[in-house]
Amino acid sequence: MKKLLPFLFIICLLFMAFQCEDDEASTQEIEQQALNTSKKAIEDLAATSICNETFECKFIALGSKPCGGPWSYLVYSTSINTEKLEKMVESHNKKESDFNKKWGVFSDCAYASPPTSLNCENNTCIPIY
C-alpha cells in the first residue's frame, strides 16, 4: 500500500493539472461566446435603424483588434437610441480588449478604414469607402 501512495499522488497531480487546462479552455470559450452575443445584440440594434430626411446616418468603431484599432465600423442612424448603442459598443470594445490581453489573442494588424461617407438608400444607411 505504501508503494502505491506516491504513484496515486502523481496521478492525482496529473489529473488536477489537466483539469485546470480544461477549465481555462472552457472559460475562454465562455468569454468568447459572451463577446459574440454582445456583438450580435449591437448589430441587431443597429439593423433596426432607418434613415430619411429626419434621421442622420452615422458610424462607430466596433471591436478591439489585438494590434489596436477596431475590427470594423458599424453603420446606423439616429432613428434608434444612439446613447444606448454607443454605451453597448464602448462596453463591448473594452471587454474585447481585456479578453485579448488576458488570453494572448493575436490577429493581423491590418487597418480597418472608416467609411469616407454615408448615403441613405431605401431607408438604409450605406457606407461608402
From TrEMBL:
It comes from the Bacteria. Residues 1-19 form the signal peptide. Keywords: Signal. This is Lipoprotein. It comes from Mariniflexile soesokkakense.
